[in-house]
Amino acid sequence: MSLTRRGMLLGAGAVLGGVASRYAGPQNPSQDGLGLIAPKGGDGVLNDASLLSETPIFRHSVLKEQGPALIAALRAEMAEARAAGRAFNIGAARHSMGGQAIPRAGHAVTFESPSIEIDSAAQTFRVQAGTRWHQVIAALEPAGLSPKVMQSNADFGVAATFSVNAHGWPTAFGPMGSTVQEVDMLLADGTAVTASRTQNPDLFAAAMGGYGLIGQITSLVVAAEKNMALTPTFQTMTADAFADAFQAVVRTVPMAYGRLSVDRAGFFQQAMMISYAPVQQAIPPVTGSGLMSKAARPIFRAQLGNEWVKRRRWWLETGPNAMLAGLASRSGLMAEPVVTLDDRDPTRTDILHEYFVPPSAFGEFLAVCRAIIPQSYQEMLNVTLRWVEQDDLSLLSYAQGGPRIAAVMLFSQEMSIRAEADMRQMTQSLIDAVIALGGAYYLPYRPHATPAQMTASYARAADFAAFKHQVDPKALFRNALWDRYLSALAPS
Q1: Which of 30, 127, 197, 392 has the greatest number of C-beta atoms within 10 Å?
Q2: What per-residue confidence (pLDDT) applies to 352?
Q3: Domains delineated in the chain
Q4: What is the pTM (predicted TM-score) of this model?
């Protein structure tokens, strides 16, 4: 019996905004006598996966309509918000970590209306915006197809992935937006438009990674890839050798990623590269998480404050579990849910960071991480390394001027004021170092970057804000990302 990727790696795959999935409704953070931030719940607020982004809203609406009925319902909700001068924003799984899908005092809309139309000849599929990736995988599998690029887990909305311009670990591609052929959206005045690289290309470039601030996407046409049977190869090496090894393999196999050791004594000293090559065998069916995946959670969580367990987990991943890995399908490797490794400790929350660095600077990146991260009292549980091709299209691109190695870091953070202060300090130090290396940080996570760091990472942020002002002059579409970083860049 072959193991799933997550079971095999004992919880290796941290995902976009996804691991901290304990959110079960609106919550009110407060501070108890011990200084912990204690979510209380309540009406009129929304939170996200961080559990630290409680924000007052006017209303939260869930739209389940299809086609023209969805457009009509969306226009009506937008018109009410526009007439009252309230903010408006759409979300799906709401796995961001800094209020990027929450409109303060505004209208929050969640799409729960899956619709998928497959064009097998063109190897594309059209989806309604709220469709989740696991629904896409299930629909594509009988047609022998697989998502070309998606996040490493299947819980998220397709339009949301485009809106945060997330990437995955299929190689060698740019962000998911590079596989989108066109999008249908509603502008702030209710006008319906189609945008692509040739039709309204300025709208397309701004909406890709635009966090719902340009237009509200209702459907997308996305490229697919043939599903295939894959067999893994595992290579262990020093971390400093990883970038060269990764560059040598990413354009020769359809899927690859890396891992780093995280115990403090051997912090970021060792690396493992996992690559998947196609084989001429029957394609295994997509099954989702199995018993091994569920059994991984206790080991993954036992790392907290236990360096021996971290070392033991690394030994298991690079040794026995690598030898047990077997045949997988392209789709099956991406079909894992985020809940498998859910954190059930009410005093802690899982927080993601992600940094994009030029491959030539990866060794220097390792050095600054070794100097900065162990000095904090944050508990790092995991880091995954992925390849992202150059993206010069998106106005808020994190991979301009060349490909990047993406380092996705998962921390377990105490839910307290002191932990937030420590996380902020560590984050800002890491961002400064990454900027100095010609890299960038990722925007969907905790808003600890300073405004200056944001504009240093995203050179066209002012262009984005100016274009938004052009198409949405009254800033109907707003969220915490706009409020904290981008609104000050817009023309007055």
Answers
A1: 127
A2: 95
A3: 5-15+229-455 (3.30.70.2520), 29-109 (no CATH), 116-226 (3.30.465.10)
A4: 0.91
Q: Strands 88-91 and 107-111, how do they pair? A: parallel
Q: How does DSSP classify residue 485?
A: I
Q: Is the distance from CB of 168 to CB of 212 less than 8 angstroms?
A: no
pLDDT band at 292 (very low <50, low <70, confident <90, very high): low
Distances (CA, A) of 236 to 240, 261, 279, 314, 317: 11, 11, 23, 11, 10
**Would you state the structure tokens that stand for residue 261, as one six-digit string?**
């050791």
- pLDDT tens-digit readout, 441-468: 999 999 999 999 999 999 999 999 999 9
Residues in contact with 407: Cβ distance below 8 Å, sequence separation at least 6, in sequence order: 354, 355, 356, 357, 365, 369, 383, 384, 385
Q: CB–CB of 198/299 below 8 Å?
A: no
Paired with 274 in beta bridges are 234, 257
Question: Which DSSP letter does residue 445 get?
Answer: S
The C-alpha angle 242, 413, 266, rounded to 5 degrees, equals 35
The mean pLDDT of the chain is: 89
| Range list of β-strands (E), 100-165 | 107-111, 116-119, 124-128, 145-147
Kindly report the backbone phi and psi dihedral angles of residue 247, in degrees, each rounded to the nearest multiple of 5, phi listed first. Answer: -60, -35
The pLDDT of residue 288: 63
Could you tell me which of 87, 82, 113 has the C-alpha nearest to residue 100?
87
